[in-house]
Amino acid sequence: MKHKHKYDAQGKQLCCTLQELKIDKDSNKLLKEEQHHEGDGHNHSHSDDGHNHDSTDKTTIELFLPSIISFVLLLAGIAMDNFLPQSWFKDWVRLAWYIAAYIPVAVPVLKEAFESIKNGDVFSEFLLMGIATIGAFAIKEYPEGVAVMLFYAVGEVFQTLAVTRAKSNIKSLLDQRPDEVTILENNQPKTVKAGTVNIGDIIQLKPGEKLGLDGELLTDAASFNTAALTGESKPDTKNKGETVLAGMINLQTVTQVKVTTDYTDSKLSKILELVQNATAQKAPTELFIRKFAKIYTPIVVFLAIGICVLPYFFVSDYVFREWLYRALVFLVISCPCALVISIPLGYFGGIGAASRNGILFKGSNFLDVMATIKNVVMDKTGTMTEGVFKVQKVNILPEFNKDEILKMVNALESQSTHPVATAIHNYVGEVDHSIQLKNTEEIAGHGLKSNINGQDLLVGNFKLMDKFNIKYDLDPSTIVYTVIAIAYGGKFAGYLTIADSIKTDAKETVEKLHQLNVKATMLSGDKNTVVQFVAKELGIDNAFGDLLPEDKVNKVKEIKAKNETVAFVGDGVNDAPVVALSDVGIAMGGLGSDATIETADVVIQDDKPSKIPMAINIGKKTKQIVWQNIILAFAVKGIVLILGAGGVATMWEAVFADVGVALLAILNAVRIQRMKF
To answer: CA-to-CA distance for 520 and 336, rounded, in angstroms?
Structure first.
């Protein structure tokens, strides 16, 4: 039987290394740089027909082997040139030796140059390196020709390793869907391909195994690790009848799940598709650099030709070899790989860091927008509150037996399907079926009435109390929450308050937004007193209740009229007009609704509002790193280009300006993978 991965309670894989992971075939496109097929910029990393930084099929030693061979031959050649002169090491023998040192590192690059030209991208960095190093051989600067190509090749390997590292957490995400599952057929376990499982089949899941498809839990209760979906490793206990999702790890007992969704339609499949497509949505900075590189590279080639040829007409002691050398140095320096690799890698790192924390960006362009957000406009229910009504306060008058009253209220409310009834049932517990209800009726807009033990029980709002002339000595308008009034035997017995409880990290969310100089505004269709109370509790700047969807749109338009960027946080379905109007639409609870994944630009998978400032922080850090790399590359290259044209910089400075700056930029770009947000 095919090997299945095993995981511990924290979601850590126990059995295979990253290099051994099988990446699902329809996810492979994520592991390739998409620059080649876009056709609007310079190629550094191509897809199948070009250069590829995906190194999962090679060990580090295999990647470095050509460079090691070249380095050993180069050192030996330099030693025989300068320190241990050999009589035989001259003329064609010396040339052959350096060609042997050149070939291991040059062949892949020259092949890339040929492929690029064949695909219509003439002025690629590979062509620049080819011209510069072959030119060095032409003017008999053999060691420098080898050295330039060697350092470039070493830089390429480090870039490959950096890209692989940056992608590792997304690669692990892509392995969350098991290829095979165990189903019960005539009560006998049978291992089948996950893609062949039908809706209605029963999956048997052992401890440590991952669920392959979405379904309904048939076992009474089970604990799951949901890290693959939410970024949270804390166990989540599900009860019979609740929905469980592909990617969840069963932690304790053998569990049975009834499949409710096709393999390709599972929540995890949608998330994987979203992450795959994210890298195709390019940020403006990234698109600009690509377009810039496409124009910049041919200009540099023609400038190099000018540096070599034009001095002939203006310099009295013109020496072709000297000016060709300057032109070759200029070409090496001009290679734009530091920009073309490090900038997409920076954005890729940002998307990866976000997905590791349970935040899904639909494109690197939204990382840029999140970095500029000045206003976060949020819905109340389900965003800053749990979206589940709970009993907040029970106030029963002393002359009544509190437990008996609550049992009777629970029995009466069991006749209703209203969310309030559910809240009371959850608070009181199981219904006491020994309580006899007689002449039960629902009074529309008021509440419920029944006869218990010969006495009338009234449960509803204060209009119900007024209707039956029940006297009470309090002002209902002073109570913030929804109030359930109770009367028994013609007397007011007390009341319950019911409310949607505030999420534990909601207050912290608003504080962090303020630290980022972001204003928080709450828009809700809920009762205005409730909205104002929640806003005051959380420290929200502005809050508006009793709003219709069109009112929310108008409020967002008012903010945008001030030329300020707006992120709207909601369920992504009911608030679709506001999401469309805002600069970034953020959906809370991507696991709860397929529609949220479809409509939002950013999906927060675990319902935690504290991920909103985290998403802004990730956007800011990504943009900061990208601009650091742009400034570093332009500054160093600009200085060395001028020095090279003036004959001051040698090939060695040129190598630093190209490979050195590229490596520094890449190391800077992968920093985001280690950051804590």
So the answer is: 42
**Cα–Cα–Cα angle for 502, 506, 509, nearest 5°?**
170
| Pairwise pLDDT comparison (1 vs 62), residue with the higher score | 62
Which residues are bridge partners to 117 per DSSP? none
- CATH number, domain 359-385+503-617, options 3.40.50.1000, 3.30.1300.10, 3.30.2130.10, 3.30.70.930: 3.40.50.1000
Model pTM greater than 0.85?
Answer: no
pLDDT at 500: 80
| Per-residue pLDDT band at 457 (split at 50, 70, 90) | very high
Element (H or E) spanning 92, and its range? helix 91-118
- Residue 176's SS3 state is coil
CA distance 58 to 56: 6
Angle at 122 between CA 120 and CA 128, to 5 degrees: 155
Which H or E run contains 579? Answer: helix 576-581
Percent helix, percent strand, percent coil in the chain, to nearest 5: 50, 15, 30
Instruction: Please report, rounded to a whole number, the percentage of residues in the chain having pLDDT higher than 70.
Output: 80
Cα(585)–Cα(604) distance, rounded to whole angstroms? 11
Using CA atoms, how far residue 478 sits from 86, 460, 474, 482, 528, in Å, is 101, 17, 8, 11, 13
Question: According to DSSP H, which parts of 263-283 are helical?
Answer: 267-278
Q: Are 601 and 619 in contact (CB under 8 A)?
A: no
H helix and E strand count, the chain:
23, 22
Q: Which residues contact 155 (CB under 8 A, 6 or more apart)?
A: 337, 658, 659, 662, 663
CB 335 within 8 A of CB 545: no
Position 576 scores a pLDDT of 65
Residue 613 or residue 563, greater confidence: 613
Tell me if the domain spanning 387-501 has CATH number 3.40.1110.10.
Answer: yes
Tokens of 319: 């020496």
Choose among 96, 69, 79: nearest CA to 153.
Answer: 69
Inter-CA distances, 453 with 408, 410, 436, 437, 642, Å: 10, 15, 7, 8, 99
Q: Residue type for 39, please?
A: G
Catalytic residues: 379
Report the pLDDT averaged over residues 242-271.
82
Domain definitions of the chain by residue range? 180-263, 359-385+503-617, 387-501
Please choose, from the candidates 430, 432, 428, 442, the residue with its C-alpha nearest in 3D space to the C-alpha of residue 391: 428
Which residues does 30 contact at the CB level (< 8 Å), separation at least 6?
167, 170, 174, 275, 276, 279
Q: pLDDT for 69-102, tens place per residue?
A: 999 999 998 888 888 888 888 888 899 999 999 9
pLDDT at residue number 597: 60
Strand order in the sheet with 180-185: 188-193, 180-185, 202-205, 255-259, 215-217, 243-244
CA nearest neighbour of 572 among 564, 559, 582: 582
Q: What is the CATH number of domain 180-263?
A: 2.70.150.10
Strand, coil or helix: 639:
helix
CB neighbourhood size of 500 (10 A): 23
Per-residue pLDDT tens over the stretch 538-554: 999 999 987 777 788 88
Give 563's contacts (C-beta < 8 A, 6+ positions apart). Answer: none
Contact criterion met (CB below 8 Å) for 226 and 204: no
Cα dihedral value 480, 484, 488, 494, nearest 10: -30
Q: If you average pLDDT over residues 296-322, what whole number do you get?
A: 84
In terms of Cα–Cα distance, which of 583, 616, 615 is closest to 359? 615
